[in-house]
Amino acid sequence: MIKDFNLEVTPEEPLKDIIKFNSKEVLEQYKKDVSIYKSFESILRAYIDALIDKAVKEGKLDKNVAETQSRTKTPESFEGKINRDDKRLKYSNPLKEVTDLVGVKILLTSIKDSQIVYEILRAELREQIDEENSIDKTQELREQRKFGYLGKHLVISYSPKMLNIVSKQDLDINEEKLEGLKAEIQIKTLLQHVWAEVEHKARYKAGEELSADKKRYFDRLAALIEVADDLFKDLIDESERINQEAQAIITQEQEKSQFFEKNENQSLEKKEKIKSASLDSTTVLLFLKNERVKEKFKKLENIDLMILCDEEPISVSAKFIQLLHCVKLDYTKDLNLLLEDKSLREILHRYAAYRDKYKTGKSILQKLNVLQILIYAKANKEQKEEIKSKKLIHERMMQILDSEDTK
């Protein structure tokens, strides 16, 4: 598929002044083959997306931390590249030597995530990597003690294994035509991506050499971008440390809570000494995911009520945290007591039965809805007024709970 376009030269001609390819012929060939490159783009992007999805399922990456973008270079862009003064004497066969005719960008939220994806791709595509043309800008700049764009680039060749996740029926070309094609994969953080776009437009597309002052401004901006990425990494690392600590506390708390349920003769003083996690959006999510907590929700079910115990909320709103603090619920142990309170459980069951009058079947509630009902049922008169004024719970829910049928 890829042809050689070397021109005949005579010994008398100085090699440095010779263009070694016919740009018109090269461009015409690329126009004929561009659909093949586009097929390769689709295959490679699907392959990378599958690797990222696998990493998410294995817990190596969080969901939605990666975004992939791809493109096949347009004939116009390709023509512009091979006819640039700095490229015309460099290439002898542009279709083989230009390695970014197909390009994929993977944008990550943090340096840590970008490193994980980079290592996954290096491991999965180790036999397809063109090491000579693959660049780690991070290492390069650190060795030079400079600031600037810190993305990682991998130049890779097509491999038949990429088709394992793409239906061959979706391909309208002969698989053999994909052999020998190369692509550039860029792995970078969102901040690095923004920096690269700004720098490229200002530095390389302006068509003029930047002054020393402007170069200095760019270097200062590059330093700020790098510092921001590092600080963001530190923030994520600290958040993960806090989350792991909170998860360990919740797990231990639930184990001890279960022990005290089985040994009711244990003193209240010992129960109160159980270490507990302070409540915020993250710890509430961790609390709801705990298997023993799910069992407590399961015990609240009855003939009128089904709770979606295994369905996890995506997030916990600031309003819900406000609701907790309004009723002086500050720790995970307070939520334990809420779920174990028999009088509150009766109100929850009456609420479910009341709702059942207006529809067939059981009331089906999410865990956060159950907590809202129990919290409102626990609140005193003043607290209920505050909840209403701040609209911390759905109005219809409060109306039902305030009705005579649920009291």
UniProtKB/TrEMBL annotation:
GO terms for biological process: guanosine tetraphosphate metabolic process. The keyword Transferase applies. Coiled coil: none annotated. Gene3D superfamilies: Beta Polymerase, domain 2 (3.30.460.10), Nucleotidyltransferase (1.10.287.860). Pfam families: RelA_SpoT. One of its GO terms (molecular function) is GTP diphosphokinase activity. CDD domains: NT_Rel-Spo_like. Residues 70-210 form the RelA/SpoT domain. InterPro entries: NT_sf (IPR043519), RelA_SpoT (IPR007685). Keywords: Kinase, Transferase. Its EC number is 2.7.6.5. This is GTP pyrophosphokinase ywaC. It comes from Campylobacter upsaliensis. The lineage of its organism: Bacteria, Pseudomonadati, Campylobacterota, Epsilonproteobacteria, Campylobacterales. The gene is ywaC.
